[in-house]
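Example (one chain per record):
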Amino acid sequence: MKRAGRGNAAGGVDGADTEGGAARVNGAVSSRRANDSRVARGGKNKATARPAAAVTAEPPPRPAPELGPEFEFGAESGLGAADGGFEVEAEAEERAADPGDLERALAEILAFLRRRITGEYTVDEHGFDVDLTEHVVAPLLRPIYRSYFRVETRGLENIPDQGGALVVSNHSGAIPMDALMTAVAILDHHPAHRHLRMLAADLVFAVPFLAPLARKTGNTLACQADAERLLGAGHLVGVWPEGFKGIGKPFSERYKLQRFGRGGFVSAALRAGVPIVPCTVVGAEEIYPMIGNSRTLARVLGLPYLPITPTFPWLGLLGLVPLPSKWIIEFGEPVDTAGYTSAAADDPMLVFELTDRIRETIQHTLYGLLMQRRSVFF
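Predicted structure:
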């Protein structure tokens, strides 16, 4: 009578279905054991004829190894080696190794050097060098903008695509880093990729190395004549009316706007008939928390202030590294000045009213953004 049999640890074969087959298998195993015993006693293991019907026992299949959690995740998501082998990682490595980006960067560098040698670049009457700004200065600032301060920009649609406009912003942070980040935000993310022509303080143009660089990157003296000239020519101009009072205020007064001067920026916008765009920056106050001011040393060095922070001067040069706060830059709705005549610029009451209106707009926006912010660094 036929019956199904299963292999066992003694060497049986799966699928042996007759008693005679099982006997032959057991006979082969017994013969092999006899030979092994003779070898163990020191005798010679002579070749013996195997029965013709003997079946070699196959080892049972090895169980598949258990996979760890990381391999189970890969199997579920299609990233396992059995499914083709980490295709996403391979594609990422291929993109990283793609020489196209490196070749383009090298080509841009060589093209820039060629233009500098041959003189194929232009500089305007104020010393603005577009080629140097776009291909040297902006690439150096972009990693700071994107990865270090992680700037979030809002309201860029309020900046006109063409024609003159005046951007008015709060000022903070011990050094004018907020002005640089605002310029990068407009250049990189505005649909027209406009350059922000910044009105800088006299001190900027008194420093030997900084003065020519400031001119080449679009800065000009913060005076009403230069502002009107730039606005009349259709440029986008940026001004920070708080000046040194804003960036040099103590940390205890953070996000409290200082006085906006005498309203000279409003007069310039009224004469040129351009809109005024209020700009609010949150995050710059925390890059250098100013807990003190060495006034005596500042006067010796000819500086308006010399900040003392939790890291400077205690950590030396390392203390000059700004803290990586999270930034938000928001451009508000523009204040239209087209409805005023040029004579309105000489009306002190109107100038004062518009100046105070813009200041209050920025202050209220600061409070709103601070309530939305989850934390200083995230």
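Caption: The radius of gyration is 38 Å.
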